[in-house]
Amino acid sequence: MKLRTAALAPALLLLAACGNSDTTDQPEPTTIATTAADSGAGLNSRGAVEVQLGETATVVQNGTTVLEISDTSLSTDGCDANTNSDSITKQGLSATIQVGPSSITQWLWSSDFYYVDADGKITKNIDTSDAEPCSGPGSSAFIDLPPNSGADGRVTLDVPDAAEVIGYHTTQGGQDIRVEWDLPETATPTTAEAPATEQVPAVEPTPTLEQAQPAVPQSQPATAPPVGYTGAPNGDPQPLAGKVIDYCMTGPMYQTGTTQFTDGTTGWTQECAGQ
């Protein structure tokens, strides 16, 4: 009897071990965290990191910042007119960049830029450029940067006047980086013109009865002709019609009353005699 029990012991232990197999710990599933940039969140419809010109644009891939562009601005200083079209303005884009662990031949290469108009149409800088760069330092600052470094520089762009967005896209080094800057409003607000004032014809005042009647010339009081003689004093002095006294001749050699008339003749008048 003891021999049978001893023989069964190993079998019972094996069954007990099989009965405990349901309680063995299972390995927990592994989770992988993804950044917003990795999942496409925060990108616009063209897959670009979109910011206003002057704001900082940060491109994150696989949880690592691969490119940061800040202090962006546009200026025509040192830039000649675009020789291809009057509707294209040559400008220098100044920027500060900070690159991540990857390195490419040239960051912000002018051929990697494009423009978007109000209808969403794309125009590439290689199609608008006349191959005449703006003068000034900084044009080669973004070439052959080592990993995890930064630089200030300037790149020449030939921007269509209709552009509302400047875009940058590079696939150098197997990367896929796209950044877009919204341009500020460039149109100068028009001053509202004041409505034209209707010209009202001047109202002529109604003439009064006195003003309406023609003025009657005032007659000069009639001057009585002098009385006297123009010849020998015969009879009583008579009115000398048509004669006008010029002056009385009062010298000692003249008789009192002698008169000089305006017609050059002389005579005698009561007027001069009474002086």
What do these coordinates show?
- The protein is of the alpha+beta class and 275 residues long.
- The protein has two domains: 147 residues, Sandwich (Immunoglobulin-like), CATH 2.60.40.1240; 47 residues, no CATH class.
- The protein contains five helices and 14 strands.
- It has a five-stranded mixed β-sheet with strand order 1-9-8-5-6. It has a five-stranded antiparallel β-sheet with strand order 11-10-14-13-12.
- The chain is rod-shaped, with a radius of gyration of 58 Å.
- The chain starts with a helix and ends with a helix.
- The N terminus is likely disordered.
CATH architecture of the largest domain: Sandwich
CATH topology of the largest domain: Immunoglobulin-like
- List unreliable stretches of 5+ residues: 1-24, 26-39, 187-192
Strand content: 25-35%
β-strand number: 14
What is the succession of H and E elements? HHEEEEEEHEEEHEEEEEH
Average pLDDT value? 79
The coarse overall form would be rod-shaped
Instruction: Please outline the major beta sheet.
Output: 5 strands, mixed
Task: Identify the strand order in the major beta sheet.
Answer: 1-9-8-5-6
- CA radius of gyration: 58 Å
Helix content: 10-25%
Number of helices: 5
**Total domains:** 2
CATH class of the largest domain: Mainly Beta
The N- and C-terminal alpha carbons lie at a distance of 201 Å
Structural class: alpha+beta
